[in-house]
Amino acid sequence: MIERVIATEVAESLIRGLRQRHGEVMFYLSHGCCDGSTPMCLKRGEMLLSEGDVQLGEVLGVPFHASRMQLSYLGDAQLTLDVRSGCLGTMSLEDADGLHFVLRSRKLSAAELADLSPVR
After folding, report:
1. 3-state secondary structure of 46
2. What was the pLDDT predicted at 89?
3. Is the pTM of this model over 0.90?
4. Which of 106, 113, 22 is nearest to 62 (CA)?
5. Contact at 8 Å (CB) between 46 and 36?
6. Each residue of 41-50: pLDDT tens digit?
7. Left if phi > 0, otherwise alpha if psi is -120 to 50, otherwise beta: which for 72?
8. Dmax of the chain from CA atoms?
9. Nearest to 73 by CA among 98, 92, 56
10. Is 69 within 8 Å of 52 (Cβ atoms)?
11. At 34, is the pLDDT very low, low, confident or very high (cuts 50, 70, 90)?
């Protein structure tokens, strides 16, 4: 099965560190006018999800959520979570470390789409 969300080794390492310091965390793909499509890492329960949100997948057991409306342009892509230097001034936990998560997307082939993990 093709996972919708995967992560680089650098992102996985940062996620492990954030979990050690903050406990259980989650990702939410921002879609506001200012943040664009910034993946934000938050303590679980810090942000309430609605019926308009879906879980695209998990990275190291950490759920990755997005708005259902974002599926219209993310539904045929695999997302790779990565890390870059620099603060974005967001509520995301890694911002305090002078880092931020970024996403790269790769359009999936028809064969891959047939084997794509479902959203929840």
Report:
1. coil
2. 79
3. yes
4. 22
5. no
6. 999 999 999 9
7. alpha
8. 41
9. 56
10. yes
11. low
Look up residue 15 and give its two tokens.
């996620």
Cβ atoms of 6 and 79 within 8 Å: the answer is yes
pLDDT tens digits for range 41-75: 999 999 999 999 999 999 999 999 999 988 888 89
Which amino acid makes up residue 58? E
Contact partners, residue 20, CB within 8 Å, separation at least 6: none
Q: What's the CA gap between 78 and 102, in Å, rounded?
A: 13
| Burial per residue of 38-47, b for 16 or more beta-carbon CB atoms within 10 angstroms, e otherwise | bbbbbeeeee
* Amino acid at position 80, single letter: T
Detail the DSSP E strand segments found in the chain.
5-7, 25-29, 39-43, 53-59, 62-67, 77-85, 99-107
CA distances from 85 to 36, 72, 112, 115 (A): 18, 30, 32, 34
